[in-house]
Amino acid sequence: MNVLLKGQLKFLSEFYDIVGVSSEGQLLDEVEQREGIKTIEVNMERGISPLKDLTSLYKLYKILKREKPVIVHSITPKAGLLTMLSGKMAGVPIRIHTFTGLIFPTRKGMVQKLLISMDKLLCSAATHIYPEGEGVRKDLIDYKITSKSLKVIGNGNVNGIDLEHFSPGQITEAQKDLLKKELNIEDAHFVFVFVGRLVGDKGINELVKAFSHINKKENSQRQSKLLLVGPLEQELDPLHPDTLREIENNPDIISVGFQKDVRPYFAISDALAFPSYREGFPNVVMQAGAMGLPSIVSDINGCNEIIIEDQNGAIVPVKNSEKLSEAMRKMKLDTDYYQKLKMNARPMIESRYEQSVIWNALLSEYKKLIKEKDYRV
Protein backbone atom coordinates (compact mmCIF):
# COMPACT_ATOMS: atom_id res chain seq x y z
CA MET A 1 0.00 0.00 0.00
CA ASN A 2 2.84 2.36 0.85
CA VAL A 3 4.32 2.06 -2.64
CA LEU A 4 1.68 0.40 -4.81
CA LEU A 5 -1.10 2.94 -4.17
CA LYS A 6 0.99 6.04 -3.50
CA GLY A 7 -1.05 9.19 -4.21
CA GLN A 8 -4.16 7.30 -5.29
CA LEU A 9 -5.62 7.05 -1.80
CA LYS A 10 -5.21 10.79 -1.24
CA PHE A 11 -6.95 11.46 -4.57
CA LEU A 12 -9.87 9.16 -3.73
CA SER A 13 -10.18 10.67 -0.23
CA GLU A 14 -11.32 13.91 -1.88
CA PHE A 15 -14.51 12.05 -2.86
CA TYR A 16 -14.94 9.33 -0.22
CA ASP A 17 -13.94 8.42 3.32
CA ILE A 18 -11.08 5.98 2.76
CA VAL A 19 -9.82 3.38 5.24
CA GLY A 20 -6.62 1.51 4.38
CA VAL A 21 -6.08 -1.97 5.84
CA SER A 22 -2.72 -3.70 5.53
CA SER A 23 -0.12 -5.71 7.44
CA GLU A 24 2.63 -3.18 6.76
CA GLY A 25 3.10 -2.15 10.39
CA GLN A 26 4.95 1.12 10.90
CA LEU A 27 4.73 1.92 7.18
CA LEU A 28 1.00 2.45 7.73
CA ASP A 29 1.84 5.53 9.80
CA GLU A 30 3.61 6.95 6.75
CA VAL A 31 0.61 6.09 4.55
CA GLU A 32 -1.79 7.72 7.01
CA GLN A 33 0.19 10.95 7.13
CA ARG A 34 0.95 11.18 3.40
CA GLU A 35 -2.45 10.12 2.06
CA GLY A 36 -4.57 11.72 4.78
CA ILE A 37 -6.60 8.57 5.44
CA LYS A 38 -7.40 6.31 8.37
CA THR A 39 -5.33 3.11 8.47
CA ILE A 40 -5.76 -0.17 10.36
CA GLU A 41 -3.14 -2.88 10.75
CA VAL A 42 -4.13 -6.54 10.29
CA ASN A 43 -1.32 -9.08 10.08
CA MET A 44 -1.70 -11.34 7.03
CA GLU A 45 0.75 -14.13 6.20
CA ARG A 46 1.92 -14.33 2.58
CA GLY A 47 2.12 -18.12 2.71
CA ILE A 48 -0.58 -20.61 3.69
CA SER A 49 -1.03 -20.66 7.47
CA PRO A 50 -4.53 -21.91 8.41
CA LEU A 51 -4.66 -20.73 12.03
CA LYS A 52 -3.18 -17.31 11.31
CA ASP A 53 -5.38 -16.96 8.21
CA LEU A 54 -8.52 -17.66 10.25
CA THR A 55 -7.42 -15.05 12.79
CA SER A 56 -6.87 -12.49 10.02
CA LEU A 57 -10.24 -13.37 8.47
CA TYR A 58 -12.02 -12.78 11.77
CA LYS A 59 -10.22 -9.45 12.35
CA LEU A 60 -11.14 -8.26 8.85
CA TYR A 61 -14.75 -9.30 9.41
CA LYS A 62 -14.92 -7.31 12.67
CA ILE A 63 -13.40 -4.24 10.97
CA LEU A 64 -15.84 -4.38 8.06
CA LYS A 65 -18.83 -4.82 10.38
CA ARG A 66 -17.67 -1.78 12.36
CA GLU A 67 -16.74 0.48 9.44
CA LYS A 68 -19.73 -0.51 7.24
CA PRO A 69 -18.11 0.37 3.88
CA VAL A 70 -20.07 0.54 0.65
CA ILE A 71 -17.00 -0.71 -1.27
CA VAL A 72 -14.16 -2.99 -0.22
CA HIS A 73 -11.34 -3.26 -2.78
CA SER A 74 -8.45 -5.72 -2.42
CA ILE A 75 -5.32 -6.16 -4.51
CA THR A 76 -2.76 -8.75 -3.37
CA PRO A 77 -3.52 -12.53 -3.55
CA LYS A 78 -3.72 -13.55 0.13
CA ALA A 79 -5.26 -10.26 1.25
CA GLY A 80 -7.70 -10.55 -1.64
CA LEU A 81 -8.98 -13.96 -0.59
CA LEU A 82 -9.36 -12.97 3.07
CA THR A 83 -10.92 -9.60 2.22
CA MET A 84 -13.46 -10.94 -0.26
CA LEU A 85 -14.54 -13.70 2.14
CA SER A 86 -14.79 -11.36 5.14
CA GLY A 87 -16.52 -8.74 3.00
CA LYS A 88 -19.17 -11.23 1.94
CA MET A 89 -19.65 -12.41 5.52
CA ALA A 90 -19.97 -8.79 6.69
CA GLY A 91 -22.48 -7.92 3.98
CA VAL A 92 -20.37 -5.32 2.14
CA PRO A 93 -22.45 -4.64 -1.01
CA ILE A 94 -19.62 -3.92 -3.50
CA ARG A 95 -16.63 -6.27 -3.23
CA ILE A 96 -13.88 -5.63 -5.80
CA HIS A 97 -10.66 -7.55 -6.32
CA THR A 98 -7.90 -6.53 -8.71
CA PHE A 99 -5.66 -9.35 -9.93
CA THR A 100 -2.22 -7.81 -10.33
CA GLY A 101 -0.59 -11.07 -11.32
CA LEU A 102 -1.34 -14.77 -11.28
CA ILE A 103 0.92 -17.34 -9.65
CA PHE A 104 -0.77 -20.56 -10.76
CA PRO A 105 0.17 -20.43 -14.50
CA THR A 106 3.82 -20.97 -13.51
CA ARG A 107 3.12 -23.80 -11.05
CA LYS A 108 2.29 -27.46 -11.64
CA GLY A 109 0.56 -30.40 -9.98
CA MET A 110 -1.17 -30.09 -6.63
CA VAL A 111 0.28 -26.65 -5.95
CA GLN A 112 -1.32 -25.30 -9.12
CA LYS A 113 -4.65 -26.95 -8.29
CA LEU A 114 -4.60 -25.44 -4.80
CA LEU A 115 -3.83 -21.95 -6.12
CA ILE A 116 -6.57 -22.21 -8.75
CA SER A 117 -9.06 -23.31 -6.09
CA MET A 118 -8.13 -20.33 -3.91
CA ASP A 119 -8.59 -17.87 -6.79
CA LYS A 120 -11.92 -19.46 -7.70
CA LEU A 121 -13.05 -19.08 -4.09
CA LEU A 122 -11.91 -15.46 -4.09
CA CYS A 123 -13.88 -14.73 -7.26
CA SER A 124 -16.99 -16.44 -5.92
CA ALA A 125 -16.97 -14.06 -2.95
CA ALA A 126 -16.27 -10.92 -5.02
CA THR A 127 -18.93 -8.95 -6.87
CA HIS A 128 -16.51 -7.42 -9.39
CA ILE A 129 -13.18 -8.67 -10.80
CA TYR A 130 -10.64 -6.29 -12.37
CA PRO A 131 -7.61 -7.88 -14.07
CA GLU A 132 -4.69 -5.45 -14.10
CA GLY A 133 -4.07 -6.05 -17.80
CA GLU A 134 -5.29 -7.96 -20.84
CA GLY A 135 -2.81 -10.80 -20.27
CA VAL A 136 -4.12 -11.42 -16.75
CA ARG A 137 -7.66 -11.26 -18.10
CA LYS A 138 -6.85 -13.90 -20.72
CA ASP A 139 -5.36 -16.25 -18.12
CA LEU A 140 -8.42 -15.92 -15.87
CA ILE A 141 -10.60 -16.88 -18.84
CA ASP A 142 -8.35 -19.68 -20.13
CA TYR A 143 -8.16 -21.35 -16.72
CA LYS A 144 -11.90 -20.85 -16.14
CA ILE A 145 -11.32 -19.10 -12.82
CA THR A 146 -14.63 -17.24 -12.95
CA SER A 147 -17.63 -16.73 -15.21
CA LYS A 148 -18.08 -13.18 -13.93
CA SER A 149 -17.40 -10.18 -16.14
CA LEU A 150 -13.73 -9.16 -16.26
CA LYS A 151 -12.90 -5.50 -16.83
CA VAL A 152 -9.50 -3.85 -17.29
CA ILE A 153 -9.53 -0.29 -15.92
CA GLY A 154 -8.07 2.21 -18.40
CA ASN A 155 -5.07 0.78 -20.25
CA GLY A 156 -4.18 -1.41 -17.31
CA ASN A 157 -2.02 -1.05 -14.19
CA VAL A 158 -3.17 -0.32 -10.65
CA ASN A 159 -1.78 3.15 -10.08
CA GLY A 160 -0.29 4.53 -13.28
CA ILE A 161 2.98 6.43 -13.33
CA ASP A 162 3.84 9.79 -11.79
CA LEU A 163 5.48 11.40 -14.81
CA GLU A 164 6.68 14.42 -12.86
CA HIS A 165 8.46 12.23 -10.31
CA PHE A 166 9.83 9.77 -12.88
CA SER A 167 11.39 12.24 -15.25
CA PRO A 168 14.98 12.41 -16.55
CA GLY A 169 15.14 16.07 -15.54
CA GLN A 170 14.77 15.19 -11.86
CA ILE A 171 18.38 13.97 -11.69
CA THR A 172 21.10 16.54 -12.35
CA GLU A 173 24.27 15.89 -14.33
CA ALA A 174 26.27 16.44 -11.14
CA GLN A 175 24.25 13.77 -9.33
CA LYS A 176 24.77 11.34 -12.19
CA ASP A 177 28.50 12.01 -12.35
CA LEU A 178 28.86 11.45 -8.59
CA LEU A 179 26.94 8.16 -8.65
CA LYS A 180 28.88 6.91 -11.67
CA LYS A 181 32.12 7.69 -9.88
CA GLU A 182 30.97 5.81 -6.77
CA LEU A 183 30.07 2.75 -8.85
CA ASN A 184 33.12 2.93 -11.15
CA ILE A 185 30.98 3.45 -14.25
CA GLU A 186 32.47 5.41 -17.15
CA ASP A 187 30.59 7.42 -19.77
CA ALA A 188 31.67 4.95 -22.46
CA HIS A 189 30.06 2.00 -20.68
CA PHE A 190 26.67 0.70 -21.81
CA VAL A 191 24.72 0.09 -18.61
CA PHE A 192 21.92 -2.47 -18.33
CA VAL A 193 19.87 -2.03 -15.17
CA PHE A 194 17.56 -4.43 -13.35
CA VAL A 195 15.29 -3.15 -10.57
CA GLY A 196 13.49 -5.61 -8.31
CA ARG A 197 14.03 -8.54 -5.97
CA LEU A 198 17.05 -10.67 -6.81
CA VAL A 199 15.28 -14.03 -6.99
CA GLY A 200 14.96 -16.80 -9.55
CA ASP A 201 11.40 -15.86 -10.45
CA LYS A 202 12.60 -12.49 -11.74
CA GLY A 203 14.89 -14.14 -14.29
CA ILE A 204 18.12 -13.15 -12.54
CA ASN A 205 19.83 -16.48 -13.30
CA GLU A 206 19.19 -15.98 -17.02
CA LEU A 207 20.09 -12.29 -16.88
CA VAL A 208 23.47 -12.86 -15.26
CA LYS A 209 24.24 -15.70 -17.69
CA ALA A 210 23.23 -13.59 -20.72
CA PHE A 211 25.23 -10.58 -19.55
CA SER A 212 28.35 -12.62 -18.82
CA HIS A 213 28.10 -14.16 -22.29
CA ILE A 214 28.01 -10.86 -24.19
CA ASN A 215 30.79 -9.36 -22.10
CA LYS A 216 33.10 -12.33 -22.68
CA LYS A 217 32.23 -12.50 -26.37
CA GLU A 218 32.79 -8.81 -27.03
CA ASN A 219 35.41 -7.73 -24.54
CA SER A 220 37.19 -5.80 -27.27
CA GLN A 221 34.08 -3.79 -28.17
CA ARG A 222 32.04 -1.36 -26.10
CA GLN A 223 32.14 -2.54 -22.50
CA SER A 224 28.91 -3.21 -20.61
CA LYS A 225 27.93 -3.00 -16.98
CA LEU A 226 25.02 -4.77 -15.29
CA LEU A 227 23.51 -2.77 -12.45
CA LEU A 228 21.34 -4.79 -10.04
CA VAL A 229 19.10 -2.64 -7.84
CA GLY A 230 17.15 -4.63 -5.27
CA PRO A 231 17.40 -6.93 -2.26
CA LEU A 232 18.81 -10.44 -2.43
CA GLU A 233 16.12 -12.80 -1.08
CA GLN A 234 17.46 -16.31 -0.59
CA GLU A 235 14.68 -17.79 1.56
CA LEU A 236 11.79 -18.60 -0.81
CA ASP A 237 13.32 -18.45 -4.30
CA PRO A 238 17.12 -18.56 -4.09
CA LEU A 239 19.45 -17.87 -6.98
CA HIS A 240 21.67 -20.63 -8.34
CA PRO A 241 25.09 -20.85 -6.62
CA ASP A 242 26.78 -20.17 -9.99
CA THR A 243 24.74 -16.97 -10.34
CA LEU A 244 25.68 -15.79 -6.86
CA ARG A 245 29.37 -16.44 -7.56
CA GLU A 246 29.19 -14.54 -10.85
CA ILE A 247 27.51 -11.54 -9.18
CA GLU A 248 30.17 -11.53 -6.48
CA ASN A 249 33.21 -12.06 -8.70
CA ASN A 250 32.40 -10.28 -11.97
CA PRO A 251 33.67 -6.68 -11.72
CA ASP A 252 31.20 -5.61 -14.42
CA ILE A 253 28.19 -6.65 -12.32
CA ILE A 254 27.30 -4.07 -9.69
CA SER A 255 24.77 -4.99 -7.00
CA VAL A 256 23.66 -2.07 -4.83
CA GLY A 257 20.86 -3.69 -2.81
CA PHE A 258 17.52 -2.10 -2.02
CA GLN A 259 17.27 1.61 -2.84
CA LYS A 260 14.38 3.79 -1.69
CA ASP A 261 14.81 6.06 -4.71
CA VAL A 262 15.60 4.17 -7.91
CA ARG A 263 15.56 7.20 -10.23
CA PRO A 264 19.30 7.97 -9.99
CA TYR A 265 20.06 4.39 -11.07
CA PHE A 266 17.76 4.65 -14.07
CA ALA A 267 19.39 8.00 -14.88
CA ILE A 268 22.89 6.50 -15.19
CA SER A 269 21.68 3.49 -17.19
CA ASP A 270 21.06 2.94 -20.90
CA ALA A 271 18.44 0.17 -20.89
CA LEU A 272 16.30 -1.88 -18.53
CA ALA A 273 16.73 -5.67 -18.61
CA PHE A 274 13.71 -7.31 -17.00
CA PRO A 275 13.42 -11.05 -17.83
CA SER A 276 10.84 -11.92 -15.16
CA TYR A 277 8.90 -15.21 -15.32
CA ARG A 278 5.57 -13.67 -14.31
CA GLU A 279 4.13 -10.25 -13.57
CA GLY A 280 0.77 -8.55 -13.41
CA PHE A 281 1.62 -5.14 -14.78
CA PRO A 282 5.17 -4.25 -13.73
CA ASN A 283 5.70 -0.73 -12.44
CA VAL A 284 9.45 -1.01 -13.02
CA VAL A 285 9.01 -1.21 -16.80
CA MET A 286 6.81 1.89 -16.80
CA GLN A 287 9.21 3.74 -14.50
CA ALA A 288 12.16 2.94 -16.75
CA GLY A 289 10.22 4.13 -19.79
CA ALA A 290 9.25 7.35 -18.05
CA MET A 291 12.95 7.91 -17.32
CA GLY A 292 13.66 7.54 -21.05
CA LEU A 293 15.00 3.97 -21.08
CA PRO A 294 14.06 1.30 -23.61
CA SER A 295 13.47 -2.14 -22.08
CA ILE A 296 14.23 -5.77 -22.80
CA VAL A 297 11.43 -7.80 -21.22
CA SER A 298 10.18 -11.37 -21.24
CA ASP A 299 7.06 -12.29 -23.17
CA ILE A 300 4.68 -12.32 -20.20
CA ASN A 301 1.56 -10.52 -19.02
CA GLY A 302 2.02 -6.79 -18.53
CA CYS A 303 5.52 -6.62 -19.98
CA ASN A 304 4.25 -7.46 -23.47
CA GLU A 305 1.55 -4.80 -23.11
CA ILE A 306 3.84 -1.96 -22.01
CA ILE A 307 6.62 -2.83 -24.46
CA ILE A 308 5.93 -3.02 -28.19
CA GLU A 309 8.60 -4.86 -30.16
CA ASP A 310 10.99 -2.56 -32.06
CA GLN A 311 9.17 0.57 -30.84
CA ASN A 312 10.13 1.08 -27.20
CA GLY A 313 11.99 -2.14 -26.50
CA ALA A 314 12.48 -5.82 -27.20
CA ILE A 315 10.52 -8.88 -26.07
CA VAL A 316 12.25 -12.24 -25.51
CA PRO A 317 10.98 -15.72 -24.56
CA VAL A 318 10.76 -16.57 -20.86
CA LYS A 319 13.74 -18.42 -19.33
CA ASN A 320 15.80 -18.10 -22.53
CA SER A 321 19.25 -16.69 -21.77
CA GLU A 322 20.39 -17.03 -25.42
CA LYS A 323 17.60 -14.84 -26.83
CA LEU A 324 18.09 -12.43 -23.94
CA SER A 325 21.79 -12.23 -24.75
CA GLU A 326 21.02 -11.54 -28.42
CA ALA A 327 18.62 -8.72 -27.51
CA MET A 328 21.13 -7.17 -25.11
CA ARG A 329 23.87 -7.40 -27.73
CA LYS A 330 21.72 -5.72 -30.39
CA MET A 331 20.67 -2.90 -28.08
CA LYS A 332 24.28 -2.33 -27.07
CA LEU A 333 25.84 -2.36 -30.55
CA ASP A 334 23.14 -1.14 -32.98
CA THR A 335 23.16 2.61 -32.33
CA ASP A 336 20.36 3.53 -34.75
CA TYR A 337 18.11 0.81 -33.34
CA TYR A 338 18.84 1.89 -29.77
CA GLN A 339 18.24 5.59 -30.44
CA LYS A 340 14.85 4.85 -32.02
CA LEU A 341 13.75 2.85 -28.98
CA LYS A 342 15.06 5.48 -26.59
CA MET A 343 13.26 8.29 -28.44
CA ASN A 344 9.93 6.44 -28.09
CA ALA A 345 10.38 5.25 -24.51
CA ARG A 346 8.90 8.16 -22.53
CA PRO A 347 6.19 9.27 -25.02
CA MET A 348 4.77 5.73 -25.11
CA ILE A 349 4.38 5.79 -21.32
CA GLU A 350 2.97 9.33 -21.28
CA SER A 351 0.25 8.50 -23.79
CA ARG A 352 -1.02 5.36 -22.02
CA TYR A 353 -0.18 5.26 -18.31
CA GLU A 354 -0.18 8.77 -16.89
CA GLN A 355 -1.32 8.53 -13.27
CA SER A 356 -4.30 10.88 -13.32
CA VAL A 357 -5.82 8.90 -16.21
CA ILE A 358 -5.77 5.69 -14.14
CA TRP A 359 -7.10 7.42 -11.02
CA ASN A 360 -10.00 9.07 -12.83
CA ALA A 361 -10.90 5.82 -14.57
CA LEU A 362 -11.10 4.09 -11.18
CA LEU A 363 -13.10 6.96 -9.69
CA SER A 364 -15.58 6.74 -12.56
CA GLU A 365 -15.93 3.01 -11.94
CA TYR A 366 -16.61 3.55 -8.22
CA LYS A 367 -19.23 6.20 -9.00
CA LYS A 368 -20.93 3.91 -11.52
CA LEU A 369 -21.06 0.96 -9.12
CA ILE A 370 -22.38 3.08 -6.27
CA LYS A 371 -25.04 4.59 -8.52
CA GLU A 372 -26.11 1.11 -9.63
CA LYS A 373 -26.56 0.15 -5.97
CA ASP A 374 -28.46 3.41 -5.41
CA TYR A 375 -26.22 4.49 -2.52
CA ARG A 376 -25.56 8.06 -1.48
CA VAL A 377 -22.07 8.85 -0.22
UniProtKB/TrEMBL annotation:
Q: Which UniProt keywords apply?
A: Transferase
Glycosyltransferase subfamily 4-like N-terminal domain boundaries: 11-130
Q: Which CDD domains match?
A: GT4_CapM-like (cd03808)
According to the entry, every stretch annotated as the Glycosyl transferase family domain falls at 176-346
The record ties this protein, via Pfam families, to: Glyco_trans_4_2, Glycos_transf_1
Per the UniProt record, which residue ranges are transmembrane?
A: none
| GO MF annotation list | glycosyltransferase activity
In its UniProt entry, what is this protein called? Answer: Glycosyl transferase family 1
Supply the source organism for this entry. Chryseobacterium lathyri
